[in-house]
Amino acid sequence: MSNKHLFLKPGFVRAPLQNGVGRYVQQLQRIVLKFCKTHGGSRGMRDYIEQDLVDFAKQNPGVVVYLKPRRHRSPVVVAEYLNGDRVWMSMHNKSQSEVTKWIEVLRTQQGDVSGTRLRKFQYTDHPSIQGPWSPFTFKNPELNTAKLPDPKFGANNRLPMSATEQLRIMFEKQRLNEKDLKTGE
Amino acid sequence: MSIIRTGLQRFANIFSTGPGGILSRFVTSLAPEENKSTPKTTKDVIATCNKLIEENKSRNFAIIHLLGKQWRVTDGDLLVVEGYWPPNIGDQIKLEKVLLAGSKDFSLIGRPLVQPGLVNVTATIISKGLSHTRTHFKKKRRKQYMRINFQRAQQTMLRINSVEIANKINEPAKNVF
């Protein structure tokens, strides 16, 4: 069993260099594809290089792509980001579509994100705009000048309504309605 | 005490009577405006809010509905959204499900949404990646049962670029959808 995530470094949501405030800057800067020209483990990687790599390079002019053939070693992709992160990923025995997907992930992420566990999913510089709530928010300011103890503020108004009171309220409502009828005439 | 209670009830009755209650003047509705004469206080409140928006002295915020969650956003916020979501990095999007918008001195409460075109929330997709590896460990004691699953969720990071309130509270909504 792996308990690795329990000891992961916790972190907050951050973006390098206020990315996206004025304009968006792509974070992937450099990608190195290492592969073998003969071994079977590199087959998906070779297919990717033959079929998709040129399109990838055309669509991402900001990314430097290096190819590094090396004999009898398993394929590897290394991505380097603007904030200095370097992500190493083994592509051994991965098919062409898997390689495509992983390279897309490397292209769109903004650094080595797998190393930290996010503690919050939002970051804000302004936690409150209308002022933080306090127990006195929306309370009658009369309380500020009242001299305590005061029977008005000290009354226990959390008691459940008694049957007598309910009857009384019903009676008063009835009387009000009668009055309304009279005024309506 | 009972007198106070009845008084409160009467007060509550005042609040609850009338079309939409006393709070309705703060609320913009999606329904087309009917030809009703608006009371003077309502007009004053709306005029004051419009003036505050025009002066633009304080920061705006909005509560938006995004992928089943509600977020309180203001300019420059970062959000992380989990799960599959089509927008790609560098895309600029408008978040149109605004449940509430406000500034320091007033709030516009939608029921359920603030009318379209009144509040403009724009965002940029900054990055799309995967979360850390989460372990799902299940075990039943003495039952020879154990499962370990690993999963990584897709995460999309958003930067909120602007939360703007247009200077036209209480104007009839134009049906843009």
Short overview:
Chain B: Keywords: Ribonucleoprotein, Ribosomal protein. By secondary structure, chain A is an alpha/beta fold. Chain A contains six helices and seven strands; from the N terminus they run E-E-H-H-E-E-E-H-E-E-H-H-H.
Categorize the overall geometry of chain B: elongated
Tell me the number of strands of chain B.
11
Which chains make the largest contact? A-B, 41 and 49 residues
Q: State the CATH superfamily name of the largest domain in chain A.
A: Glutaredoxin
> What percentage of amino acids of chain A are in beta strands?
15-25%
- Rg of chain A is 34 Å
The overall pLDDT of chain A, averaged over residues, is 90
In sequence order, what are the helices and strands of chain A, one letter per element?
A: EEHHEEEHEEHHH
Alpha carbon gyration radius of chain B: 23 Å
Please state how the strands of the largest beta sheet of chain B are arranged side by side: 1-7-6-2-3
Give an account of the 3D structure.
The complex is a heterodimer of chains A (185) and B (177). Helices cover 32% and strands 18% of the residues of chain A. Chain A is α/β, with parallel strands linked by helices and 185 residues long. Chain A has two domains: 23-118, Glutaredoxin (3-Layer(aba) Sandwich), CATH 3.40.30.10; 142-184. The radius of gyration of chain A is 34 Å and the shape is elongated. Chain B has one domain (22-29, 37-165). Helix content of chain B is 18%, strand content 40%. Chain B is built from two helices and eleven strands, in the order αβαββββββββββ. The termini of chain B are far apart. The interface between A and B is large, with 41 and 49 residues. Chain B: InterPro entries: bL21-like, bL21-like_sf.
